[in-house]
Design brief:
- 2 copies of one chain form a homodimer.
- By secondary structure, chain A is mostly helical.
- Chain A has a domain of 113 residues.
- Chain A starts with 13 loop residues before the first helix and ends in a 6-residue tail after the last helix.
- At the A-B interface, α2, α6 and α8 of A face α2, α6 and α8 of B.
């Protein structure tokens, strides 16, 4: 049961929280919409993989599985992507640029100060632009917030990957502005 | 020097980042304004102390010092509050409720899952409401984002506490909507 009264079984994970406090839900959803579905030279699939990876590193089951399902919906890759993200994407063809950006995201997840000049140089070598580096850092940072919000209030979430497929389709194709 | 081109010496800490990407600046500032200055039964001074404490635990000098200066401006407590927050507020009269909420914020800073039912029960014993617990968790989570954003992009920030006093006054009394 969540730490505060949320009607969380009907509204799992962050959904009950967004419903509980609409004043903070608005900027949180606007941020997610801009970062994950707004104009960018990174595809939405790539950005959802970054979001899902950070959530997995923070052990947030709801955020990892829902955003991995959104990535699968964008990439039409099937449900196996959800577990492949946990393993570091051994079975998913992704660009070398995304792999170095995922390394930067992992550094940010631990602490912002962990990002080194060498990490940035490696990203530039793979063609990453300032805007892509900026957005990678902010996506990673934002999911360090969303993950703590969801878990810090003890919200409930369904266990099996299959329970997230419809949610992932909605996140990918309807977006974050329509809650 | 910051990891991306920001004109950061003129626009220290997060300011250069907000200026660099206005599309994400808007929801980030709206979130800060609502959480730190919007209607709440926690005072803005108390909420800025939570924000500054989390930032100190994350070792983010810019966010800690600027939000501690904002707390000092709200509480008219003088510059010593900035260092007193680092030490756990031994010389600042704060309520027992704020002390247990700061403990919850510290748990969230490490990982959302660290918040226990006992932590929540201790907060309720000091009179904390659902809304106060919610906002404490979200403020702590949000500063885990802001801190990683500011440090993950390697932004520059002035060192001495004195350099933040005017900024703190502006954050407290003008707010976060006017950048």
């Amino acid at each position: 049961m969540a730490h505060i009264k949320l009607n969380n079984e009907q509204l799992p994970g962050i959904v009950g929280l967004l419903n509980y406090r609409p004043e903070t839900a608005r900027p949180l959803l606007d941020l997610a919409e801009t970062l994950l579905r707004g104009p960018s030279t990174l595809t939405s699939g790539e950005r959802e993989i970054i979001a899902a990876s950070v959530s997995y590193w923070n052990q947030c089951h709801f955020c990892h599985t829902s955003h991995a399902a959104a990535a699968a919906a964008h990439l039409q890759s099937g449900i196996n992507l959800i577990d492949d993200i946990k393993a570091g994407l051994p079975n998913t063809p992704v660009s070398d640029k995304l792999r170095v950006l995922l390394h930067i995201a992992h550094q940010v997840q631990r602490n912002g100060k962990n990002v080194t000049a060498d990490d940035i140089a490696a990203a530039r070598e793979e063609g990453a632009t300032d805007a892509e580096i900026h957005d990678t850092v902010l996506i990673a940072a934002a999911f360090c917030m969303f993950n703590r919000y969801v878990d810090g209030l003890g919200t409930w979430a369904p266990e099996p990957n299959e329970a997230y497929l419809e949610m992932g389709e909605r996140m990918a194709h309807v977006g974050y502005g329509k809650y």
